[in-house]
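Researcher: Before we compare anything, I want clean individual predictions. No alignment, no superposition, just each chain on its own. First chain goes here; please echo the sequence and then give the structure tokens.
Model: Echoing the first chain and its structure:
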Amino acid sequence: MDLVTPDLGLLFWTSLVFALLLIILAKFVWKPILSAVNEREQKISDSLELAEKTQAEMKALHAQNENLLKEARAERDLIVKDAKETATKMVEDSKNAAKEEAEKVMKSAREAINNEKAAAISELKNQVASFSIEIAEKIVRGELSNDDKQKALADQLAADVNLN
């Protein structure tokens, strides 16, 4: 039965460590991550809204071109041919302009995502380097805590200097 019921001391220390970990995560990790995710979500939703507006404008332009074609059919054959050529050219120009605008929006969104990714990687590298330096400092302090070890290191460095 002792294997199933935890000891009161173990329960206390486990709860304390968990609470400390939760506080550290809440203070230093969750806020930056949530803000970055929210910013990215906002940028993506703005890009999607812009794409939808561009698509609606393209549909409106297409509807206007169809009305021009209907009116042109009622006129003479020569005017009909000219109107069809003009409408086709306008549709192609509108499509090209809409495609270029959509490409620009997508390109800027990709660049923003890549920039955010690079910044996050850089920040992570800086943190890893800082942790590595702290660990190395603690190891060196432990190695040089004893006078005998310090003397041995000084003798070794002096021998290296003499050899060079």
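Researcher: Okay. Second chain, same rules.
Model: Second chain and its structure:
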Amino acid sequence: MRDNYDIAELNPRKNPYSDKLKRQVTINLKNTTIEYFKKLAEETGIPYQNLIDLYLDDCVKNGVKPDVKWQRPA
């Protein structure tokens, strides 16, 4: 092992898995949503946070958009 390394001579390569890395975020979800995915997690053996991520990823891949209808209060 060398005592010194010249960083300028290194050949930096982009991480081939960088597009698959996850980023931690904070998100507010309804209790019913969390309980649904926790129940599904028990049935499948997949952690509920992974199930939520898989579901959202599937929505992205298939271009699924939420059907939101805003109503003004009476």
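Researcher: What stands out in the second chain?
Model: Residues 27-62 form one domain. Additionally, The helical segments are 31-44, 48-62.
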